[in-house]
Specification:
The protein folds into two domains: 144 residues, no CATH class; 120 residues, no CATH class. It contains ten helices and ten strands. Helix 7 packs across helix 10. The two termini are 38 Å apart.
């Protein structure tokens, strides 16, 4: 029996609570025509931020007038002066769990009680493991799933601000070689399968606390670094790289080099690369400070 709500609905409420636990959280997500997605920005002190990006003269938006892409370089310096520094990236794959309540369920012997279950997709797991390694401590890469199953529970937790508290968090690095994960309640404990292995991941609170040991970087430098280790993680995986590059072209309506000069501090290109990654692989990336 599947949870009643979809991943996207759960994700929205989960991220809203993470934002309240941090000084700032930025999540490039959907890039609609004429506007770069800044749906997860907080403490953004520059006025009319959403009124700036609709006037970027990329090829797809040729009919609009306003600042050119090259002028955004200077705007990046202003962003760095206004935004708090960033220390961590949260890569989260949100899972819609199944509620397994019958004694003939495949993993019943591990719990001998009803439990939640979700599937781990092998290629995505491998890519996320590489990202965690490439980030070298500047990224937490996790699966997040609700420890409840009804819409009424989701909306009640959302109103009370307890969605995160009633979720189960598991570290991608600890699930290597497994294809399913099961749990009975919130927290960071569960059992990975098919060969059962008890998994105790760091809590989200501990993950966010760990970022204090990282170097604080200005927005544009942090975003550039994030895009670099995403690309590094894809390495020579031609299939993954092709999907990612196709997603970038879909956002831009062409190749980036056709519309933006090379040799610059391309933080805007980095944002597009991150947004393309989220769309291509269904993994939400959030820069946290």
């Amino acid at each position: 029996m599947w949870a009643e709500f979809k991943e996207k609905t759960y994700e929205t409420y989960f991220l809203a609570e993470v934002a309240r636990l941090t000084n700032i959280l930025y999540s490039p997500d959907q890039t609609d025509e004429g506007e770069l997605g800044f749906d997860g920005s907080f403490l953004l002190l520059l006025p009319s931020w959403r009124m700036v990006f609709p006037y970027v003269r990329f090829r797809r938006w040729r009919h609009l007038t306003g600042i050119s892409a090259s002028e955004i370089d200077d705007f990046g310096a202003e962003l760095n002066n206004h935004l708090p520094p960033f220390r961590l990236n949260l890569f989260a794959q949100y899972k819609r769990p199944e509620w397994m309540h019958r004694s003939n369920a495949t993993e019943w012997a591990s719990w001998t009680a009803p439990y939640f279950r979700y599937t781990i997709e092998a290629k995505q797991q491998g890519l996320l493991e590489k990202i965690a390694k490439a980030a070298n401590g500047r990224a937490a890469v996790v699966y997040a799933a609700a420890a409840f199953r009804r819409n009424s529970e989701l909306f009640r937790h959302a109103e009370a601000g307890t969605v995160v508290r009633n979720s189960n968090i598991s570290s991608v690095e600890m699930l290597n070689g497994h294809d399913r994960f099961t749990y009975t309640g919130p927290g960071s404990y569960g059992i990975a399968h098919s060969e059962p292995e008890n998994i105790e991941s760091p809590s989200l609170g501990n993950i966010l606390a760990s970022m204090e040991g990282n170097e604080a970087l200005p927005f544009t430098k942090h975003i550039n670094l994030t895009a670099e280790f995403i690309e590094s993680a894809m390495g020579d995986d031609r299939e993954a790289r092709d999907v990612w590059e196709a997603s970038r072209r879909a956002i831009l309506g062409g190749d980036f080099t056709e519309v933006y000069p090379s040799g610059r501090d391309n933080w805007i290109e980095a944002i597009i690369s991150i947004a393309a990654f989220t769309q291509a692989f269904n993994v939400r990336v959030s820069a946290v400070g």
